[in-house]
Each structure stands twice: as C-alpha cells, then as structure tokens.
Amino acid sequence: MATNEPQSRNPVLNREFKDPARYATFGTQTADAATMQQQYELPAAIDAGDKMTVQDVVVKTAILFAILLPLAVVGWNAAPDYPMLVWGAMLVGLGLGLANAFKKGVSPALIMLYAAVQGLFLGGISRWYNQMSGTESTTINDAGQVVTGPNIVGQAILGTLVAFGVMLALYASGKLRATPRFKKMMMVSMISYLGIAVVSLISSFFGVGEGWGFYGVGGLGILLCVAGVGLASFSLVLDFDMIEKGAAYGLPQKESWRASFGLLVTLIWLYLELLRLLAILQRN
Fold this sequence. Notes:
Elements lengths: L32 H9 L12 H25 L4 H20 L5 H25 L5 E3 L5 E3 L3 H22 L6 H25 L13 H32 L5 H29 L1
Antiparallel strand pairs: 1-2
Helix pairs in contact: 2-4, 2-8, 3-4, 4-8, 5-7, 5-8, 6-7, 7-8
C-alpha cells in the first residue's frame, strides 16, 4: 500500500521513517476524521524545538567537513612514508560507515570519527592519484620546456563543488525531483553499477586495464567513470529529498546527524569518482 512517508535508496537516510505516526503528517492527502482523531490523541513526543531542520543538517555537515579537512592534510603528508596508515583508514572508514548506516540509534561521536578517518584516507589516496597523474613530477618536452601534470585533486574538488551546486539548484527549482520512477531508476542503476565495480575490482587483480580493471579499458573505462560520476551526482537529489521531507515530518533533531552523514557519504563517493576519472584521462 502506498504511503506518503519519505523513502530513499540511501540506507543511511531511510532509518527513521519506519514509524511515521510518531511525527507530523506530511504530504498533500487529506486525512479522514478517524485519522485526525488518532493523530490528535498521540502523545506529543517531540517538541517543536527538538525537531530536525534543514539548517541543523547544514551546520552538522559543516562540522563534519571541519573535522575531515585537517585530517585530509595529515593523510596527504603521511601517504608517501606511511601507506599502511591510509589503507588502514580505508578499512576502518568502511567499518564505521556500515556501523553508522545500520545502527538503530544515532551516534554523533561515531559519525564524527567516520569523518576523521575518511579524512586520512581521502588525503592519502588523493596524494597517490596526484603522483600517478604526474603533478608532483616534472618532465622536459621536445621544446626543452619543463612540464608538470595537471592538479587533478584541485579539479576533483572543484568538480564536486560544482556538481553539488548544480544538483542543489536543479532540486530547489523543482526541475529535478525524487519521484517514485526516479527512485526506481536510481536503485536499478546503482545495483548494476555496484555489480560492475565488484567484477572490475576482481579483474584488476589479473592485470585487466593495467590494474584499473574495466575502468582502464579504453573508451569503456571512460564511460564507466562518467556513469559513476553521474550516479553519485544524481544521488544527491535523493539526499536533498530525504533531508527536506525529514524536516517536514518533524524527525528528532538528533537525526540531523544521520542526514549529514548520508550527505557526506555521497559527496565522498562523488569526489572519488571524479578523481578516478581525471586520473584515467590524464593517464590516457
């Protein structure tokens, strides 16, 4: 049976909508007299000041990035000499991500720890991509000029900000909405992409694409990278939709941490997809 409750393909942002009767009615359908009486008799579990708002999510997201960015600098500097620190941060970050995504209660401490660990990982892997693209090395061209590679890390950061801004503008203008059809298409696309990514990872161990897996196989690899960037970008629409509807539903204020965590996960995914695309383009 269809409901008005917000749902998402992002498990991080789909936790607190299992019992919508606890919160205010959301949607455009008119409730009948019995439903209105039932809602009137429900206890006021959440005061207006304790409800999640979009502003709460913005503040929490800013806090997470304030934690992530300094640790990214540490990871960047440590990557050449302490590679195991970066790989360790990747594994710990994966564990914390799963724990936060499927944990019933919200834990701000775990979410902030996730941001810190991901900062180490992102800084380290960004440094490695930077080295592979030739930014940190110089060569002499045929004309005797000193040439360095492009700063793909800066380009990936700029690309992430631009994609975020564009998607937010399209969503705010109503040109992009998380309709049921859009959600179904995104679900099928993300499951398909995940399957391809797993097979690509396995194939990379056998030297396919010179260690890049399917992503390093000519035009096919470029198309896969572009698809990854597109999926991550459109996933932001799902996040915006869930944040807006979560605030309208009157979720507890603490849920703004979960919403910020979900948004951070998507932005990290988008950045990594852009970074890989730029590295492969530079390699080619």
